[in-house]
Amino acid sequence: MTALLKLSGASKKFGGLVAVNDVSFGVEKGESLGLIGPNGAGKTTTFSILMGEHRPDSGSVEFRGRPITNVPTHRRVQLGIARTHQIPKPFGGMDVFENVRVGSMPDSIWRLIAEREPEHAEWEIMESVGFGEREARMLPGQLSMGELRKLELARTLATNPEILLLDEVFAGLTVGEIAQLTQLLLERKRQGMTYMIVSHDLRSLRPLVDRVIVMSFGSLIAEGEFDAVMADEAVREAYLGHARTEERGVVDGTA
Amino acid sequence: MVNILIQGLALSGLYALLAVGFTMIFSVGRVLNLAYGVYIMLGGYMYYTAVQVMGLPKIGGFLFAIAAGIAFAVLTYSILVRRLEGNPVAVEIATLILAVVMQSLIILIYRPVSKSMWPVVQGVFRYEGVFVTYNLLVAMVVSWVALAGLLIFVRYTRYGRAIQAVSMDRKGAIISGIDPRRMNLLTWAISGALGALAGVFFATYTQLNPSMWVGPLIVAVAVVVVGGIGSIVGSLIVAHIIGFMETFTTAMIAAELRGVFTMVLIIVVLVVAPKGLFGRGEL
Amino acid sequence: MPKSRFHRSLLYWLAFGAFMCLIPLVASTGVVRLLIFANFLAIFAMSWDIISGRTGYISFGHPFLIGIAGYTTAILTRHLDAPLFVSIPLAVLATLVGGTLFFLPALRIRGTYFALVTLAFMELMYQLTQVIAPKITGGTRGLSGLKTIILGAVPNYYLTFCVMFAIAFCLWLITRTRIGTALAAIRMDEEAVTALGLSTLKLKLFAFGASAAVAGIGGALYVHYIGSIAPRALFDINFLFTILVAALLGGSGTIAGPILGAYFLTFLLEYLRPYLPGAERYFIYGAITLVVYVLEPRGLHSILERAYGKLSPIVARGLAK
User: What is the pLDDT of residues C71-116, one digit of tens each?
Assistant: First the structure.
């Protein structure tokens, strides 16, 4: 079976820092893959390579069996890959609903001008993340961190992705919000959505993923089911080693 | 040929002085001060007023010009730019509008006609076909002295190093107890002084008129853009490239075309290498 | 609800059009001539606003675009004796090509640097028109004695007003669709727009094209109204300044703003004429704009809107009594 999204032998250097080192993996359709690892392991850079925001120094990206290494970001989104960001970046001057509307826009000047698309698809997405009429007219500046994450998710869902790359979706959320978000993501998964999720919050990640891969210092060090990977010696080493470097105050290099 | 080289060298020296104040503001505050040309114009007009209208000695004219430059620069920063902090595009628009406002003020006071200035130093240096006015030579020497002084100030004095710190890493500077606003204000004051000083020589090199701020501003922009962000040495090199190219074009092709090269340089460099040819160096 | 808002806006447009059409019946020729200039300025300010107010790419080189149109039609009619209905469309076409040239730097740079490139374009054009082929361009003195489209203040008023009104109305119709939102999104965060699957290249090209076309129409008509063209009058920071100030003072990012700003400035200029006859009035212009810009970057339009928002409940209450 060919993977829906596949990364083969990807490497990326920033100056002297090897952010991603010969990483290969695939995400099957309908699967939910967790990507974990200590700070600076290269998780976010991996996402950026998958999205085309960074071009890998070597290696390739395939989507549905077709190479997309040289496809620009917005075309990848149109093909059905989308990501959320660690730090949500909404359009500051627009209300929540308009933000979501931008996500569902067709990439055609003519259609943007001539078509008067009904708004119910966007309202459905708004509702699914728990936004109502009141939130719709709020500006991003008035939202809490949890609501900003929901907005980021809603806006990304509006691009109608086949595979969704989620970067630290749980950071800054309350326990209640995490539970709500988990429900939403699981619901979407049942409907066939494919995920790749980066999270530090392993406890929240566990019920969401079928399989995890672990990165450390740019390299892939383990792969398998959640509990098996957590028991892995190399993984424990990477996390404990990470704990030690953090004590020494080494700053995250990729963010 | 030697003549062209000497002329080019002298003009480049003047251009380096014209540009350095603009570069400083950009490197410390990360804003493009399009009202910078006004300091140059103000310098010229104030010197003219002091020396040719009020009959003060030349040194008085210089002091008058520099004081006006500092005052206006400090006002620009504290009244206008500080309010728009964090929005460099707004600063760019506002300072351009301010420049036109000042241009009209000059017209209001001095009428729109051009005025010619007496050279600061009379006479022409002649030696075996070499032919340069003493005025331009003095401008070059003053420029070198001012630039050397600036480098020493920035590298070796407490305030200079604080300014340098803000230009490298604003947040880091704040943590080390430096108030970036004070450093900005100081930078603007120095920039106003340098602009006014350069303005006196520039006005004697060309002439006084209310739109004289545009040409030097474009040279300053080119120097910053081509030299890279806030590098004093890079600025010096580019000032010489522009100065020599203008002298060559005037001598070899046509005097009217001398500005064209500068414009093409700005466009090409910004499109091809937006970070400048010399990158971001030390201040 | 949105439908009724649309209808109400339509009503405002109609009222504005009707009011402006009635003006020549009561106003003196002087005022009418003044309004012609206001109409031109409004066209230029709207053109500037499509790029700069919407997408946030500040253009300091709009006179460059206007100049391309002006020179194209001036040269065609003067030297080749082309009829206006041929030369004006060609001029607009030439401006579109020039606008694309203008656009190239926007692929790589943005913010303050983009504004500088456009400024360099304008100054380059100023120097080149004087030096390159002065026989064709008329060199420093430019070309004069150009054909006029129609004669008389009132017909010219109706012509310029109709063109201005048509442009404004079309722009309003276009920008109130989703493309208006998309262009505003570019101003706020270009990367995010890309990440949502939209080609910012395409959107920017559209905005630049629309801006160039409007500048082209305005520029070509302007040259044939005043009958002459010269580099100093066109590629000048003062001209750029007037356009910029009209758009900023009125309120950028809107359609009504630039029109409001253009009319306001033109009448301000007229009332200042007895006191400040020359270029000094730019002093007042600029000073007012700076104050408004620093206090309310979105201009008079936004100030009026807020005042209206505060007043209308009071008026409504008064009427209810």
Answer: 999 999 988 888 888 999 999 999 999 888 877 877 777 777 888 8
Please answer whether residues C298 and C250 qualify as being in contact, where contact means their C-beta atoms are separated by less than 8 angstroms: no
Q: Is residue B126 part of a domain?
A: yes
Contacts of C196 in chain A (CB under 8 A): 74, 77, 82, 102-103, 105, 155-156, 158-159
Domain count, chain C: 1
Residue B231 domain flag: no
Q: For residue range C145-195, what is the model confidence (pLDDT) as tens digits?
A: 888 888 888 999 999 999 999 999 999 999 989 999 999 999 999 999 999
C-alpha–C-alpha distance, residues B162 and B173, integer Å? 8
CATH of the domain at C67: 1.10.3470
Q: Which two tokens stand for residue C277?
A: 């006859």
CA distance C286 to chain B (A): 5
Yes or no, beta carbons of A102 and C198 under 8 Å apart: yes
Q: Tell me which residue range forms the domain holding C211.
A: 30-320
Report how many domains make up chain B: 1
Q: Which domains does chain A have, with CATH numbers?
A: 5-233 (3.40.50.300)
Residue B60 lies in a domain: yes
Flag whether residue C115 sits within 8 Å of chain B, measured between CB atoms: yes
C237 touching B, CB under 8 A? yes
- Grouping H, G, I as helix, E, B as strand and the rest as coil, residue A5 is strand
Tokens coding A16: 């002297």
Please state, in angstroms and rounded to a whole number, the distance separating the CA atoms of residues C128 and C231: 9
Distance of alpha carbon A222 from the chain centroid: 20
Domain span holding position B78: 14-210
> What's the confidence (pLDDT) of residue C321?
58
Distance CA B120, CA B135 (A): 6
CA distance B278 to B263: 18
ipTM of the prediction:
0.86
- CB distance from B84 to chain C under 8 Å? yes
A250: phi > 0 → left, psi -120 to 50 → alpha, else beta; which?
beta
